[in-house]
Amino acid sequence: MTPPNSPVWPRDTWTARPLRSNLSQAHRNWLTTPDSLTSALKTVCPRFQVKILETGTRFPFPDEARLLKISCHQQVWSREVLLCNGALPLVFARSILSLRDLPRAWPTLDARDPRPLGEFLFTDARIRRTPLHFQKLSLNHPLRVRLDRFPLDLPPWARRSLHVRQGSALLVTEIFLTLPPHRSDPAQALSFFA
């Protein structure tokens, strides 16, 4: 496997808040959920489950490598999953971590474990999360290209943050494919399951 080519999109297009574009208020509410997305989805998705798509080692995308302060030619541990309500995929999630940090700071990560990472990222007091950053993915962004195999009902906004444990960072990126109901809208939640 060869590392990805140099990016052809702007270098630093991740922002501290979603820009005002064709983003509905409901989409913005989900995108900016400050706590565990897994916990938030479980409150409105009675058939919540994780579907593992790919795990293993690969090269990071250029913007991921910059954030992790590693080379694009340095392989990382990677896990890509769908967060679903039954068979309906809601969120595509990609987590990556420098291979050198896996045994030292993140020894409990198991790429085959079907549980969502959020179940321990938000319960381990030793893990510090950085603020969320957002990007509307361009057509040629490698994350957008990876979404081509899934139905995408929404503008392709991604959110990401680092989860830091013992000085080692795990990067988690999440993209909504279909909009679940927001927790504050029970009427929408009822129609979602009708």
From TrEMBL:
InterPro entries, A to Z: Chorismate--pyruvate_lyase, Chorismate_lyase_/UTRA_dom_sf
Subcellular locations according to the entry: Cytoplasm
GO molecular function: chorismate lyase activity
Keywords carried by this UniProt record: Cytoplasm, Lyase, Pyruvate, Ubiquinone biosynthesis
Binding site for substrate: R79, L117, E174
Catalytic activity annotation: chorismate = 4-hydroxybenzoate + pyruvate
Gene Ontology cellular-component annotations: cytosol
EC main group: lyase
GO annotation terms (biological process): pyruvate biosynthetic process; ubiquinone biosynthetic process
The protein's role, per its UniProt record: Removes the pyruvyl group from chorismate, with concomitant aromatization of the ring, to provide 4-hydroxybenzoate (4HB) for the ubiquinone pathway.
Protein name: Probable chorismate pyruvate-lyase
Organismal lineage: Bacteria, Pseudomonadati, Pseudomonadota, Betaproteobacteria, Ferrovales
